[in-house]
Write a structure and sequence with these properties.
6 strands; 3-stranded antiparallel sheet
Length: 84
């Protein structure tokens, strides 16, 4: 799934639209595995409506290598990171 923001300091995944956030909350709730597609501009962004914490994410696919600090924070969640 995509998102509007990925905030590593307690915010988790967020959306700018509450209806989209609720739909994605349901998707996360019934999924066996959550794969987040987020380009580099989404990291550090906290949008209006929270979708879930990072503990629900199994893999992040992004377009640029993450900064070392971001990678360190994500390593605590055991999230696979794929850069394409």
């Amino acid at each position: 799934m995509s998102c509007k923001g990925v905030h590593l300091e307690g915010g988790g995944i967020s959306e700018s639209n509450e209806l989209q956030a609720r739909l994605k909350q349901k998707m996360v709730g019934i999924s066996d595995q959550v794969i987040l597609l987020a380009d580099a501009s989404k990291f550090g962004v906290r949008a209006f409506a929270r979708v879930s914490g990072l503990n629900a994410v199994h893999t992040i696919i992004t377009n640029q290598p993450l900064e070392a600090e971001q990678t360190d924070r994500l390593s605590g969640y055991d999230i696979g990171i794929i850069t394409v």
